[in-house]
């Protein structure tokens, strides 16, 4: 090393889980800015303030590091949707909360959604993770649909997929729109559309009541 070249400051020794989180954050920043193929482990190590050997102690290669980031962000989105659904028993608010979770995810400044839904790594493992995420989100929604409407599981899953796909597509379009409507309004509009559809399915017990003219069977 040249005497005129300052030594790169080394990061302090950290617990393994804390160091891993730091490395993931640095890698996400680099991958989001440069894409998988243009990013390098050397640049990620520099951003994290560690040596390459330290980075390789935690992740054997760039692909494994990228997949770890995809897993972490997929879990964050899935958890946000599950939390929104569990936060209330009001199904209209559940729809609003789940859609807001998608908009919040794509609106993050770290562009995490691009690492999942717009990856330049054409890899079966990435595709599998995206499918698992979409299935998990749809399943969380469909469980409530099945419980509340009495629909069969395949029917509820179809509706869950439809609602999740609508939320994802609307959120991504909103972010890419050069002149988007305000975020809160976009969430409200999308939720209103979704609710107008799903609310047409009667709650369990309501269909039977309607069939008997609102009278108790006896």
Would you mind describing this structure in some detail?
This protein has 218 residues and is mostly helical. Helix content is 72%, strand content 0%. Helix 1 packs across helix 4. The protein starts with 15 loop residues before the first helix and ends in a 7-residue tail after the last helix.
Notable features of this structure?
218 residues; 10 helices; 72% helix; mainly alpha; single chain; elongated
Compile the SSE list and pairings.
Blueprint: H1 16-38, H2 41-48, H3 52-58, H4 62-86, H5 91-106, H6 112-117, H7 124-149, H8 153-176, H9 183-198, H10 206-211
Helix pairs in contact: 1-2, 1-4, 4-5, 4-7, 5-8, 5-9, 7-8, 8-9
Short précis:
This protein is mainly alpha-helical.
Strand proportion: under 5%
Global mean pLDDT: 85
The Cα radius of gyration reads: 22 Å
**Which structural class do the helices and strands define?**
mainly alpha
Helix content: over 70%
Number of strands: 0
Global shape: elongated
Describe the sheet with the most strands.
none
State the helix count. Answer: 10
Unreliable spans are 1-8, 206-218
The arrangement of helices and strands along the chain is: HHHHHHHHHH
The separation of the N and C termini measures 91 Å
